[in-house]
Amino acid sequence: MRLTRRVGLGLLAGLPATTRTYAQSRAWPSRSIRCIVPSAAGGYDTYARIMAPRLSELLGQPVVVDNRPGANGNIGMQEVQRSPADGHTILFGHIGAITINTAIYRAMPLDPVADLAAVAVAITSPLVWVVNPATLFRTCRGWSRRCARSPTAGATH
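Now predict its structure.
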């Protein structure tokens, strides 16, 4: 994936907006940027790792990707929430953790809307359904019909 100038500048333009103390600091960033990814390595953190070198080049400071998996992203989000509001810690989060967790967890450790500030959409990535080519269905409609006839027919064993 190529980090376009538009995405890079959008990320950079938005980062200072997430800080309360930015106006007091004229030398931002004054140290490395910590990019927290609230999932284990090998998933969408790949995108953060692709973007980090280019952001480092644009900012003149290292951008360090730090995986903080757990609780469907809540651990990483909490880490960002608790960090100093100086723009040196950012979250590379996914929509599920940021929006859906409030609906599925009774006691959220934070309120993503109130405790985090959205800066930019970094990537868009389609998700696809795939099946073994030897299966009896080739479309979602076929799979759905098969499941309607036998609820366990589409299950993986």
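Residues 18-25 have pLDDT under 50 and may be disordered.
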